UniProtKB/TrEMBL annotation:
Keywords: Cell membrane, Membrane, Transmembrane, Transmembrane helix. It comes from Streptomyces venetus. Its main location: membrane. This is APC family permease. The chain crosses the membrane at residues 21-43, 55-74, 95-127, 147-166, 173-194, 214-237, 249-268, 302-325, 346-368, 374-401, 413-432, 452-472. The lineage of its organism: Bacteria, Bacillati, Actinomycetota, Actinomycetes, Kitasatosporales. It is found in: Cell membrane. The keyword Transport does not apply. It is a multi-pass membrane protein.
Amino acid sequence: MSSAPSPSTGPRPALRRSLGVVDGVALAASSTAATTSIAIGMGTTASIVGLQAPALLLLAFLPVLGIATAYARLNRSEPNCGNGYVWVGKSLGPWPGFLTGWVTVVGSVVFCAYTSAIMGSVVLILANRTGLHTLAGIRLDPSSTGVTTAVGLVILLALTALTVTGMRATTRFQFALLVFEYTVLLGFCGWALVTGHHAFSLSWFNPFEIPDGTAFAQGLVLAVFFFWGWDAAFSVTEETRKPEDSARGGFIALFAMLGLFLFASVAFQREMSLAELVRNGPQALPYLGEKLAAEPWATLPLIALMFSAVASVQATLIPTARGLLAMGRDRTMGPLWTRIHPRHGTPAVGTVVVTAIAGVIALLAVALPELSDMLLAAVNAIGLIVALYYGLTALACAVRFRSARHAGVREALLAVGVPALSGLVLLGLGGYLGYSYLTMTDHFELSPDNGWFMFSLPAVIVLAGLGMAAIAKYVRHAPYFATGHGTDAESLTLPMDRTAV
């Protein structure tokens, strides 16, 4: 690994521009993890809003699409691997900018931590199906949080090793995984759509069938979380040959995800009753495979789920390390995050540290007794965080390009109206859901059914972000807090300090 050289030692290692549109699509699609979202999300969504998942997915897509247009416009104006952190800092101020970068990073690290357990669970299910139930005296129980986490962390280490060796090899690996998992997903869901014995109903697309406002808000936040990850394409904009290719990759992946989610949600409900969806929860996709096919074909959805989890974890490591790289360049975080491997052209040290932090969080999460509890708690917490940083980034676009309101109706809508409305919808949705969590119970308990607990997770992350922002401003004396501007990625001139990470 390279150390962070001072300016006097010569040119510093830089990120390598080697990616194109296909690489961006692979990264965005892997990060969105359609198969994982479908596998663990359809049952969870059904437990909240019944059979209205298709309606919520369509509704959630609209503000997400508006935010995607904001990302594309901001990236065209200022391509930077820090994206939201840089754009919000310049347009809305350094404090919300830092908070955007912080919650994005922390949410991604938490995602890596709990998805590691999913990887381990699927591997153990596959092992059980081959007749392997114990190893070295340890029971290979797929429902055991501790065992699944341990297996998942071993896989996480292997993915980290591949990630630091170069982006081209990583995106090719992800593309191969995507081809397999989407083939399996389309095949099984297509068969369920044709042979399912539950009649198709247009009421599935009617959000007014959801009687409870809290359930609607929670379900919509979860549906937004389904789409989370398409913006990963923008994190490698400094490694993409043309910055506009980042936007193309993100948009292609986003529309592809919408099609997959709607297709799968209808197929699941054609084949399974509401009771079946709720009862199987995060195991809905493997259950579908068992209903539709005999072995060994019934195992294919499990393998696809494992590939999806693997690809999504690796695709999440990539933007997380690059977001921290952008923050390190501004000295809002320590110089460790700015170290680029001289041979591979990747933020190798930062990627390894992110993996280590995710591993620690995953081990701490073992305190929750059931794997499903950990998944549900993390998913809901990250949903609020995603609503926060997507909303702030969209508002940053509306503020930065506010002069476009005088350039005609179309330009005013695309540059100001749509981003502002999308951002306000997500921020309002997150605020309403947070209020609902606080008022749904009168005590604190470590359970995903406890409102105070669900609110405390994102609240702690935000408060920690404000604390870290204060350290960056008053201890590190980061220039970012004087100007609100992110470092120009093409002309880094700030001298490095030796402040700790």
